[in-house]
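User: Hey, my collaborator sent me this sequence without any context and asked if I could get a structure. I don't really work with proteins. Can you help?
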Amino acid sequence: MVLKTEAYLRVMRCYFALITMVLLCPVVLQAQVPVQPQRPGATADTMPPGGGIRTVYIVNADRLSMQKVDSVTTLQTAAGNVHFRQDNTDFYADSIVLNQFTSIVQSYGRVHINDSDSLNTYAKYLRYDGKTKIATLEKDVKLVDSKGGVLTTQELVYDLNASMATYNNNGKIVNKKTTLTSKRGTYYGGTKDVVFGGNVLLQDPEYKIAADSLQYNTQNEVATFIAPTTIVTGKRTIFTRKGYYNLQTGKAEFFERPSIVDSTYSIDAEDMAFDDKEGLAQFRGNVVYVDTANGISVLSNQLYANKKESSFLATQNPLLILKQETDSLFVTADTLYSGKISVLSKTRSIPFIRDTANGNWIPPDLAGKDSSADRFFEAWHHVRIFSDSVQAVADSLFYAGSDSAFRLFSDPIVWASESQITADTIYLFTKDKKAERLWAYYNSFIINKIGGNQYNQVKGNTLNALFKEGTIDYVRAKGRAETVYYALDEQDQYVGMNRATSDAVDLFFEERKAKKVLFIKDLQGTLYPITQIPLNEDRLNGFNWLEGKRPKSYLELMEN
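Assistant: No problem. I've predicted the 3D structure and written it out in structure-token form, which is a compact way to encode the shape of the chain:
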């Protein structure tokens, strides 16, 4: 009886062992299979995905086999719709080979990595290290982030711990309408930043950016410049070394002496800021603006520009240069403003001040062939003007290209050679950027130095002067004109001084000196011999020779 019982028990143990093998077969073929040894008490079918042990689990496979290579190495091979997982990351492939000891997974075919539903990566080959969580992908690699940005390359190293992907053999990112290519690149999944290096080219319907290095955020579409960079937008080209450009908002800032070159102008500054959608820009630090189309340059330490209105405001020692072949005109003031006359005339009346009585002058077509004349300049406080032929100072200035006239207000003074003109208001007309004529209104006074302490003087209510080759050629004073004039004999020797009044006076110049005077109507005066001029009779009331205020050179204007 005992023998039967023992035999019976042995048979039953074999039977239960067989039943156990049969029951466990589906688990081995389809259950979660750990790559590395389990801790005591852990089992494959109780290990939760993303649980406390950072192991790789096979979630699904059509076929599964195991091969023991040596005492420590066991390879598991899975094929057909393979799905394996580590923590919150899912992997898919046509087939894989798992090394339980080294935690290395090699995947083939349609490789797909889904990292916490934020990044999806595709390739034809994957080598994954379960211990370091670094994936190396090859052949037709594609990385897609949650915002729709797509990175494609042939080789990619993806660090799942840091959500960082790197390529070193050419790659391309497409984000909405923006395409960016480079030789090298590193993608940071946490911030959605990509740092590119080597032949970087960003192309957008409105922009083209080329650089050796560039940082781009696929979420907010901000390009950050960290190396010499060229940006092309339409006809405008920007060169910078540091800064950013927001392709969504059109806002940008550039540093380290950027420059802009356009078809009609160029500009350099220490720093620049833009809002392209609003058409606004700010330039700071040693600003140099050159209008190549109109021969105009502006230097300042700060300049604001409005592209939509074609205007700019220059502050902090602004200097305007009207370029000429032989005699450029320099203007400086505390503040300088410029814009289009056609825009300004919508809010302010800008009358033409040229004398059109003879009918020879035709107003320019500001919208057509004379569009370059559709510009004005305003300057406020401490206005100073210098050219080789004419110099001037005033408190404020307005220049209109439509009549090529400088309007000088508040104690204006104009110098031409040895002559000084003052009045309440002075209009200085130019032609081909040279002085052509001058009108002085109310309390006008012209002084012409003839040598030593002697001066020809004409004073009147108004004064009209004509220039020839940039120098005064003729002056007419009207409105009970007063004069002090040193008369010359036939040998150009001074023989006396004539002090007189008349309704009008004409003064004629030769070689920059007053050579002839003509009194018109109601002349009253006295001629004094040159050696018998009474004390104080050689000065008209209000005489004030202001040579100390006269700009001496354009360098003086640039320094102040």
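In plain terms: Residues 2-30 form the longest helix (29 residues). You can pass these tokens on to your collaborator as they are.
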